[in-house]
């Protein structure tokens, strides 16, 4: 890029614009892959702890719907993002091989390379060209795969954590049994649960006194608090492992999207798809990260609503005090940040798109002048 910039012509500037998305993507892949190597035990602990949290045995219809919906959405995300990145690989890396096939069929076409590298020699000489093409193809593969692994791990971790927050909210709503009466109508969610609970546990309801109920609520509440603390800690581990990479991601995303848009409008022809596919992948990648960050915010905030919607008013004073303390803690949302600078959410995605559009319009106006 520095060598190209010394030319000073507009064509040299266009070449730099074409390099910028590739350079930005390479930096992102490096930032997301190095911690996976140096902090492998943390990743293994995240996997093991989240696996151990999954419910075993029979679950309610509400819990089954939460689990099946989360896994279904996660499967769509993994499949879609995986094939989107592989399509980008094919579009970026296939043109040189297409030109080689044309030459083998007798057509007079020039050789090309997937990426714009500066070499102190002619890269299109025999042997040199084959070696460079193999090296650039390998560079493209590992860059996309490193990016793919980092993004999908982030999405998978947050998907499992948010699912556990949603399941915990269900347990909280069912913490205290409240008999259905004129105050609690059976059509309310709490009333529906309590009716089902009364049918399945009639012996407990008939035999438990106030002390027995308090002991049961205390045990259940202790388990809920321990699970909540574990989820907050795991969310902190995800932030520690990914926050620096996310800072680089969000810093580069605006630039990458801007230069991809410029290349789509100015450099590429209408029927060429290299930078159009690049921009589509960059937009979808940033949206996925922000969407899962938003899900973490919403699911963690949902615990305070679940506590208020539970039958806490029928519990003992000791349980009410514990619920109040947990309610104050649950109102402090759990989130992932870009190294402490901003919270990852859909608002961050809006900011990135606005910034990219501002850069793009500025660059386009400079080009027109």
UniProtKB/TrEMBL annotation:
Q: What topology does the record note for this protein and the membrane?
A: Multi-pass membrane protein
Record keyword Mitochondrion present: no
Q: Which GO terms describe its cellular component?
A: plasma membrane
Q: Which domain of life is it from?
A: Eukaryota
Q: Which UniProt keywords apply?
A: Membrane, Olfaction, Receptor, Sensory transduction, Transducer, Transmembrane, Transmembrane helix
GO terms for biological process? signal transduction
Question: A Pfam family this protein belongs to?
Answer: 7tm_6
Query: Which chain regions cross the lipid bilayer?
Result: 140-161, 241-267
Localization in the cell: Cell membrane; Membrane
Q: Does the keyword Transmembrane helix apply?
A: yes
Q: Which GO terms describe its molecular function?
A: odorant binding; olfactory receptor activity
Give the protein family: Belongs to the insect chemoreceptor superfamily. Heteromeric odorant receptor channel (TC 1.A.69) family.
State the name under which the record lists this protein. Answer: Odorant receptor
Q: Which organism is it from?
A: Spodoptera litura
Top-level taxonomy? Eukaryota, Metazoa, Ecdysozoa, Arthropoda, Hexapoda
């Amino acid at each position: 890029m520095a060598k190209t910039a010394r030319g000073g012509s507009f064509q040299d500037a266009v070449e730099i614009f074409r390099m910028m998305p590739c350079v930005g993507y390479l930096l992102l892949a490096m930032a997301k892959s190095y911690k996976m190597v140096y902090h492998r035990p943390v990743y293994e602990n995240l996997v093991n702890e989240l696996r151990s949290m999954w419910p075993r045995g029979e679950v309610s219809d509400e819990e089954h719907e939460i689990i099946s919906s989360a896994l279904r959405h996660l499967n769509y995300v993994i499949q879609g993002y995986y094939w989107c990145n592989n399509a980008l690989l094919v579009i970026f890396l296939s043109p040189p091989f297409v030109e080689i096939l044309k030459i083998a069929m007798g057509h007079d076409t020039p050789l090309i390379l997937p990426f714009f590298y500066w070499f102190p020699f002619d890269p299109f000489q025999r042997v040199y060209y084959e070696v460079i093409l193999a090296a650039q193809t390998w560079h493209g593969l590992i860059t996309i795969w490193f990016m793919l692994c980092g993004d999908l791990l982030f999405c998978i971790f947050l998907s499992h954590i948010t699912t556990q927050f949603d399941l915990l909210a269900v347990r909280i709503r069912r913490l205290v049994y409240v008999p259905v009466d004129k105050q609690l109508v059976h059509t309310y969610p709490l009333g529906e649960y309590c009716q089902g609970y009364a049918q399945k546990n009639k012996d407990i309801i008939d035999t438990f006194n106030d002390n027995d109920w308090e002991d049961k609520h205390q045990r259940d509440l202790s388990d809920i608090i321990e699970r909540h603390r574990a989820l907050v800690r795991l969310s902190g581990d995800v932030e520690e492992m990914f926050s620096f990479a996310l800072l680089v991601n969000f810093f580069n995303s605006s630039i990458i999207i801007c230069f991809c848009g410029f290349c789509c409008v100015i450099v590429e022809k209408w029927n060429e798809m290299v930078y159009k596919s690049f921009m589509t992948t960059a937009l979808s990648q940033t949206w996925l990260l922000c969407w899962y960050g938003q899900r973490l915010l919403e699911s963690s905030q949902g615990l305070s609503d679940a506590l208020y919607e539970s039958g806490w008013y029928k519990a003992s004073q000791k349980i009410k005090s514990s619920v109040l303390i947990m309610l104050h803690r649950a109102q402090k949302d759990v989130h992932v940040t870009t190294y402490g600078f901003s919270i990852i959410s859909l608002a961050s995605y809006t900011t990135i798109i606005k910034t990219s559009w501002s850069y793009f319009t500025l660059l386009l106006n400079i080009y027109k002048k």
